[in-house]
Design brief:
Pyrv/PenolPyrv_kinase-like_dom; single chain; 15% strand; 10 helices; EC 2.1.2.11; 3-methyl-2-oxobutanoate hydroxymethyltransferase activity; alpha/beta; 3-methyl-2-oxobutanoate hydroxymethyltransferase; magnesium ion binding; eight-stranded parallel β-barrel; 254 residues; 40% helix; TIM Barrel
Length: 254
């Protein structure tokens, strides 16, 4: 099966997933050896400028999935099912098929939706689960699973997703020890974002990893570059070269 190799990494080798929203970034990521590319509905915030993911549509997601799929020739592309696309099994299946047609190899679904997930898997569509903080429906972004009741609910749902046959589960913004319990309790890989070091893998929004937004500084994000500063410096250098008449020079002219 397509994701057997990914499942085999559980407990042995950490899994790496990053988001991408366009052809150029997907083409770069495709050469890095990471495991998965997620076309996340986070594009609503980092690409479209919305305050959250609640306004992202299927049309938006399919457009960006097609672009990413053109650039990713090796790494599997996962399409993030946006809000209001899983109202019932029939609608969810139709939307999931649209992602596959656009070039995705699987879809991610937020929340515990057994009937939906069962329907998709029965129709040979690989599903990635997503528990903990659910941005599509959460009124605010905050740590989830702090109380015993919340923790037991999330753990139970993770076990349920495992039995349904998801190929992995994203755990977002939950306590480290809860993520550890879940990871040890399910047979499929867990991929954390703000869920500590015990998950089988990690995912970040590529814009956050690269330091594209100087104002966005959640605790779980580590910047591995400061691309915002690099871009601004490059633009200033270009502007100065143009104004001084240094660009274009003979080498860059026909």
């Amino acid at each position: 099966m397509l994701f057997d190799e990914l499942k085999a990494k559980k407990g042995k080798e950490k899994i790496v997933m990053l988001t991408a929203y366009d052809y150029q970034m997907a083409k770069i990521l495709d050469k890095t050896g990471i495991d998965l590319i997620l076309v996340g509905d986070s594009l609503g915030m980092v690409v479209m400028g919305y305050p959250n993911t609640k306004k992202v549509t299927m049309r938006d997601m399919i457009y960006h999935t097609r672009a990413v799929a053109r650039g990713a020739k090796i790494i599997p592309v996962i399409g993030d099912m946006p809000i209001n696309t899983c109202k019932n099994p029939k609608i969810a299946l139709s939307n999931a098929k649209a992602f596959i047609k656009a070039g995705a190899t699987g879809v991610k679904i937020e929340g515990y939706l057994p009937a939906i997930i069962k329907k998709l898997i029965a129709n040979s569509i690989p599903v990635m689960g997503h528990l903990g903080l659910l941005p599509q429906t959460a009124p605010t972004y905050h740590l989830v699973g702090k109380t015993k009741k919340e923790a037991e609910r999330i753990l139970s749902q993770a076990k349920g997703l495992d039995k349904l046959g998801v190929f992995s589960i994203v755990l977002e913004c939950i306590p480290t020890q809860l993520a550890k319990r879940i990871t040890e309790s399910v047979s499929v890989p867990t991929i954390g974002i703000g869920a500590g070091k015990y998950c089988d893998g990690q995912v970040l929004v590529i814009n956050d990893l690269l330091g594209m937004d100087e104002e966005f500084k959640p605790k779980f994000v580590k910047r591995f570059a400061n691309l915002s500063a690099i871009i601004k410096r490059a633009v200033v250098n270009f502007s100065e070269a143009v104004k001084k008449g240094d660009f274009p020079d003979e080498r860059h002219s026909y």
